[in-house]
């Protein structure tokens, strides 16, 4: 039993149940040492995504998960963990490798983000912050948490990318030069923090309404081939963006 500053007895707060998810043993040990140094011993260590369970008394208060460099794979993993452990606080440990990676991790369900290079100094404070009800991200990337603002034309081009159209087909659909389509895609990719058409399409499919699309596009439409009926594609485009080509 300890006392407060007035000398009254106070109950000692129990340690949170903290688990790690990392296939790399060296990285797992770094995480455990950083938490232990901050007074938070790790109670469970998991190596596979299938290990965490979402029911029973063994569910952790905090799960620190090591993420790789693939943006889409990171998003999928965090979403799966969030569904499996809905009441746990998730802290993502990731490389400092991409723009908008912070925002995407938070939107996928992470409560805190720590860069691997700063693990020893930032992990324990991040866990304390999220246990207090805060979202914690690296200060240098705080502006990236804001959702990107896409122009109307960028949304139109992305909608057609999701529909499976090539740059040439998109140019014909929107009566643009193919080089202009490439410029719109480059700008949209930069705003979204993605590197490929597949990553952009995946993000639109999962977060279309949050990005300003007027409807959530069914994944089946992403498999549409260039030989699909142009009128159907145009109707999909207008429903998604709310604008005329």
Give the tally of structural domains. 2
Biggest pleated-sheet summary? 5 strands, parallel
Radius of gyration: 22 Å
CATH topology descriptor of the largest domain:
Rossmann fold
SSE ordering: EEEHEEHEHEHHHHHH
Unreliable sequence segments: 1-6, 218-238
Describe the overall structure.
The chain contains 9 helices and 7 strands; from the N terminus they run βββαββαβαβαααααα. It is α/β, with parallel strands linked by helices and 245 residues long. The chain has 2 domains: 14-145, Rossmann fold (3-Layer(aba) Sandwich), CATH 3.40.50.2300; 152-241, Winged helix-like DNA-binding domain superfamily/Winged helix DNA-binding domain (Arc Repressor Mutant, subunit A, Orthogonal Bundle). The chain has a 5-stranded parallel beta sheet, with helices on both faces. Strand 6 (89-94), helix 3 (101-108) and strand 7 form a beta-alpha-beta unit. Helix 5 (152-162) packs across helix 7, helix 5 (152-162) crosses helix 8 and helix 5 crosses helix 9 (230-241). The longest helix has 15 residues, at 178-192. Residues 1-6 and 218-238 have low confidence and may be disordered.
Descriptive key words:
alpha/beta; Rossmann fold; Arc Repressor Mutant, subunit A; 2 domains; five-stranded parallel β-sheet; 9 helices; about 45% helix; disordered N terminus
What is the fold's blueprint, element by element?
Elements: E1 2-3, E2 9-10, E3 18-21, H1 25-37, E4 44-46, E5 62-66, H2 71-84, E6 89-94, H3 101-108, E7 112-115, H4 119-131, H5 152-162, H6 167-174, H7 178-192, H8 197-207, H9 230-241
Parallel strand pairs: 3-4, 3-5, 5-6, 6-7
Antiparallel strand pairs: 1-2
Helix pairs in contact: 1-4, 2-3, 5-7, 5-8, 5-9, 6-7
